[in-house]
Amino acid sequence: MTLYAHSKNAEGKRQPLADHLRNVAALARERARPFGGGDLAFLAGVWHDAGKADPEWQRYLRESEAGTRGRGTGPDHKCAGALLAEKNEHPWYVGHLIHAHHGGLGHPQADYRTWLSEKRNLPGPNRALEALRLELPDLLDQPAPGIPPHLQGDALAAEFFLRMTYSALVDADSLDTEAHRLGGAPSSRGGVITLAELWRRYEAFLASESPAPDTDVNRIRREVHESCLRAATEPPGIFRLAVPTGGGKTRSAMAFALRHGIEHGMRRVIVAVPFTTITQQTAGVYRRIFEQGLHDAGRVVLEHHSAGVEGDGRTNDDDSPAPDAVWQRLAAENWDATVVVTTTVQLFESLFSNRRSKTQKLHNLAGSVIILDEAQALPAGLLAPILDGLRQLTEHYGASVVLSTATQPAFDLVPEFRDIPARDIVPGHARHFAALKRVEYDFSRTAERNAWLDIAEWMREEQSALTIVNTKRHATELLDALGDPDALHLSTLLCRAHRDEVLAEIRERLSAGRPCRVVSTQVVETGVDLDFATVFRAEAPLDSIIQAVGRCNREGRLGRPGRVLVFRPPDDSSPPGVYRSGRDIARVVRELPGFDPHDPEAVRSYFELLFGTAVDTDSNRVQDARKKLDFPAVAERFRMIDDDACDVIVDYPAREVPKIDGLVEQLRTRERPAREILRELQPHIVSIYRSEYERRRRDGFIDELLPGVGRWPLGYYDPVRGITDADPDTIV
User: Is the pLDDT of residue 325 over 90?
Assistant: First the structure.
């Protein structure tokens, strides 16, 4: 009899079990071979669905297909493969991968061995093994897998290797299942455009641009670009790209990545940035370079982040059959695209996840150039696992990592990075920082506290001024003191659609030379291209102050230095933890002899003190869980974003309220999957801490639609301040 793995597809054909097992084994081996996991991935692939040979499972498939049995998980189909691994005296982790291929990586003892002891004597797995002996005997006896020698005695390396091999297995399983469902190889997926072709497009784009004016800024941008091209021939590894704000690092980093990737046979470029807003901006830059005028056939830039929305409004799980929507949906599953622009949250929470859906993409990090933009924004309390993951990728998985930022953190002081030689892409980069002194710092207002009324008066004296404060409460208090109906405001009190509108209005006012006074929290500091004549900055960590400088005289057009005035606010409120420690350490560093915030050495001195005295780089003990191969605990402990938050849907902008009402009604009626609807609502959502959400829900203020998701009432969202009638500091 023919054993089947999957029911009839659109063409009315079932997939034979032998075909599925062999296909998955071959695909998994291909994906894991670059890092030495090919044998293990093949073995897990050839046995992963061995339990489907059980006659009871075959009956389940036929009855489900005929509609006489409700679709469900069916009889267990994983235990037979784990038993085969055991009978062949293969290492335990072969069975562990097989057990995990649907439910996710578990704990070796509490999950895998407990499960195996419960299942091993059931009749189903043994019936499956007997059926395989009769029908597919050639699949039963397989040699033990070889593993890379660097895993011996290194628990962290072994843990990383298992999660990367697991990624290869589940991606192969997904791809072959998808191919059967579609009736053939999925033609819409795949990074078929090479880095060499992207380099050709990049050169053509540069040739099409008008010559840039011969200014100091543009001369330095050219020097940075040329340095990136020269450094591209260096062997793979860890690189630092230290470029002053406005020095053109977005383009130059990509130029390095393309040439470096071509030089060393790499497959893709992955760009990770701290915030979704920067993701959209960065992806837009690369689309203009690589996709302009090429339509669907030319798509190479995949934008993928937790919000799941592309810059043009499509969602990652859009069911549209249009070719570009299909490509976006499929490529996002495994990052099978030539250029991926994502967030550091998406990258690293996937890297340390145990879930099938999030880990499916990980094997594609091997042999890639990974650009970490604004690397200083990586969470200090998770630096140990993050840096160890980067070390694994560069030492054993053929990747290169570029740490790109104007404020290079001293990662070499963290034990996980201490022995790794990081190379500077731009030699003597300190001279660029000196040459691009487009601002003058003024720390004279830090000796004593300043009243909001005084700070408001400073702003009123300026034609264009940006004031950055540390908390949302401070932002609202300064707005009160300013009393300017034309003042603009940026913070997470505003939904994303609102922040986008405010940024557009700021750029329009600055371009037209109209008065423009803005009160903002730190959301404006990283990756937002604004150009003010004057920036006022509340005392903060030194890297935050320097990042704020990037919003002042950005293009050097003033004919004089811009002005950055650092002040002490009326009270010392600030985000707790590392941020507050960084602010206090910055006060100490400013008193050091010869302190110059334009000098990269001053930044290094700051990070030396921060990492040496105030930072626990593994505050959640992720590394301990990794050493125990406790994959669920790793995923639980590795959280870059506080998940103790709830979402409220706001009525902004007013012109889109009918659309928002319609989506909210779909949530109530469960007309479509909630995940799809919530992704469409992302631009109209503000996150608030759970305690405030529950308080307002209990008093009837919030209309809850789903657990942790509610509607903020009409009239309590201000066109300037955003969320009102809530403590500003309870907004995430």
Answer: no
Helix (H) or strand (E) holding 329: helix 323-334
- Six-digit token pair at 500? 């986008």
Instruction: Please name the helix (run of DSSP H) or strand (run of DSSP E) that holds residue 478, with its range, or none.
Output: helix 472-482
Instruction: Give me the phi and psi of 123, to 5 degrees please.
Output: -65, -30
Whether the CB-CB separation of 301 and 283 falls below 8 Å is answered with yes
143 burial class (0-12, 13-18, 19+ CB within 10 angstroms)?
exposed
pLDDT (average), residues 580-598: 92
Cβ atoms of 206 and 398 within 8 Å: the answer is no
**Contacts (Cβ under 8 Å, ≥6 apart) of 530:** 466, 503, 506, 507, 510, 524, 551, 554
- Measured CA to CA, the distance from residue 465 to residue 238 in angstroms comes to 38
Distance CA 184, CA 176 (A): 9
Check: CB of residue 406 under 8 Å from CB of residue 243.
yes
Per DSSP, the three-state class of 48 is coil
Strands annotated E in 55-173: none
Please tell me the predicted confidence (pLDDT) of residue 328. 54
Please provide the distance, in angstroms rounded to a whole number, between the alpha carbons at the two ends of the chain.
59
**Residue pair 635/277 in contact by the 8 Å Cβ criterion:** no
Phi, psi of 364 (to 5 degrees): -80, -5
Residue 51 tokens, joined: 């339990």
Other Cβ atoms less than 10 A from the Cβ of 331: the count is: 23
- Find out whether 497 and 683 touch, Cβ atoms under 8 Å: yes
Count of residues in the chain: 732
Instruction: In whole angstroms, give the CA distance from residue 633 to residue 234.
Output: 38
pLDDT digits (tens, 9 = 90+) for 492-548: 899 989 999 999 999 999 999 999 999 999 888 776 778 899 999 999 999 999 888
**Predicted pLDDT of residue 641:** 77
Between CA 649 and CA 703 the distance in angstroms is: 10
pTM of the model: 0.87
Q: What is the pLDDT of residues 75-109, one digit of tens each?
A: 899 999 999 999 999 999 999 999 999 999 999 99
Residue 365 has pLDDT above 70, yes or no: yes
Helix (H) or strand (E) holding 458: helix 452-460
Site of tokens 């669905």: 49
3-state secondary structure of 268: strand
Q: Mark out the alpha helices in 614-673 (DSSP H runs).
A: 622-627, 631-637, 657-669
pLDDT grade for 410, boundaries at 50, 70 and 90: confident
